[in-house]
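Hi both,

Apologies for the delay on this - the queue was longer than expected. I finally got the zinc ion-bound model through. Below you'll find the protein sequence and the ligand SMILES exactly as submitted, and right after that the structure tokens for the full complex including the ligand.
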Amino acid sequence: MTAPKTKSMKAVQIAADHSIRLIETDVPSIEPDEVLVKPCACGICGTDLHILHHGFPGTHYPVIPGHEFSGHVVDLGSDVTGLKEGDFVAVDPNVTCGACRWCKIGRPNLCETLTPIGVGRPGAAADYVAAPARNAFVVNERLGGTVAAMIEPLACVLHALESSQGVAGKDVLIFGGGTMGLLAAIVSRLKGADRVVLADPAPGKRTIANAAGVPEAVSPVDLGNETFDVVFEAAGAKPALTQAIDLVQKNGVLVQVGVLDETETATFNPFRLYERELRIVGSNSCADKFPEAVDVMSDIADTVRPLIDDRHLVWDFEAAVGDMAKGLTIKTQLHFEGQR
Ligand SMILES: [Zn+2]
Ligand SMILES: [Zn+2]
């Protein structure tokens, strides 16, 4: 894997008018503290749908999408240490300033000038992508590109678990059997939750949850009134949120992981909030959990691999997004010619 010989590359571009185009553009030039990565695999998720259809906060059109990716380092800026050409990396897409109030108190995901790769700057749906070297984490090649590209959503889930103040010894309920919900269920079990229940209306997703080692996967209509210490709303759906608030146990917490539309509102019962001393917290992206996600992924790789059930060549981005939007698959990924 060596530096590109040509100055131009192919890329997928989403324009402000929501059109998807295949473009020929310059290979990104790298800053002294950046690396150039040749992507192996790149997941697409709800964020990409938001970017495509109406914009996601911080979107810089026209944008090359792709923020959940793995790949090989092919070029390094002059100041980069600790990485070398050929390194297999997973990339934390969240580029932060390191200097604002939120960065200084260790809340990088709240950075005033957060510029995620694939949202606010060019992403991985291209022959090459540039990233700050500090965002690139070396991963064991044996994991494979597809599993390594799942480290980003895993890091988001680890942040959500931390936002809940821990699940060990607790009863956990998760709404949504997509990537985030399934990873939350898998990791909750790993972190010692007493009981993990996943709720999703789709029987197919419940079967996949069972196969991923989550024995209690039910339809939301069958949940009844039983309450839980920690409830994750990972469906990004208003009915799930409304039901979720009602099912939080005394002193419990509801963690909003799912991304609803910016304009959506929801109601809750403030008396219940007071009476049960509930907490409702949001969990946004992966914060500082990327290094931990690299470690945890090596323990759960075999459970995670079957969740990647839909793959398209990167240049078929439109078909990939179309598949993903149908909600019938768990994780849609883009793959790249000649890359594993
Ligand atoms: Zn994502
Ligand atoms: Zn900052």
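Main takeaway for now: The radius of gyration is 20 Å.

I'll put the files on the shared drive as well.

H.
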